[in-house]
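Deliverable D4.2, example record:
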Amino acid sequence: MISKTISRQILTVGEGFQPPLGGISSVLSTYSNHFSDFKFVATYNLQISKISNVFYFALSLIKLSGKLLTDSEIKIVHIHGAHYGSFYRKFLVFLVGKLFGKKLIYHSHGSDFHIFYNNANPLTRKLIQIFFRNIDLVICLSKQWKTFFEANFKLKNIIVLENIIDPADSSLPKERSQHLRLLFLGFIGERKGIFDLLEVIKNNKEYFNDKLELTIGGNGETKKLEAFIKEYQLENIVKFKGWISGEDKKALLQKSDVYILPSYNEGLPISILEAMSHSMPIISTSVGGISEILTSNVNGFLVKPGDSEAILSSIKAFINNPDLIDAMGRKSRQMVTPYYSNSVIPKLESVYKQMLTV
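Output generated by the structure prediction step:
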């Protein structure tokens, strides 16, 4: 727990996290439980429309300014952000923080930030450069992301801080069935590779029919997903559950065998960390920070984005050798411990202390 003495000097800014509806909001939700005094301003509401969020953000800037004007204890503004629209919102937050003379932390969660920057117009690239040149500390999620930021921007300071989860209950038994129970949680779209996975299942439907059960939880292009399942008659193999959170998500993680996330871009997915905490092997891609938590043939299999043959062979490996599930699952549980809150929170508090004493 971050002490009241420290936490009352920190103002956290990011998307709303009640309820948690994604990776950033999950991180913020966990942080909120480990600050003695969690001062927070939400700049985006995941449960309303984009147009409504324009007005929501305008009110957020007023609220932010009011807090910084009236709360003299606040010394640091800790900004959590991503890419595209999130960056523009956080640029304005950055300007407000500078106006009030606060120290600024930018906590980058953006899986597509490299694409956003490389494809940006000259004005946006200039804004991004100004932003990073004047941020007091950048926090990123992996060594790979640290290399990207250092190569592209003039930074005052940058560190890698592990993404955070609370550990799963290790006393709960893992149940096994005759089918391999594969699990995908996340945004339904091309970036997450879910349709690559469905193509693999479609092309091998006869083989998987009595051997595999894939459960999908998430939001996004849900109509496209449901249409695909119906068109290719995959209902016996693929089950779509919609958005899953809270106790329902924990129960699903506990009863599933293998977690799969064949993404094209990532930061460091909370969903993989949560699956590892539930003693699950992982099938995923070597993008973002994933290769720092997943080692092929140790706690799962790394595949290249879009590599259908590798996805297929990885799934088959668990079907043909079920003992791998428990063996690799135990390795996942061991390897995820640095991402538990009891490890990450003391590091974060140390960062705050250093900034407050400079």
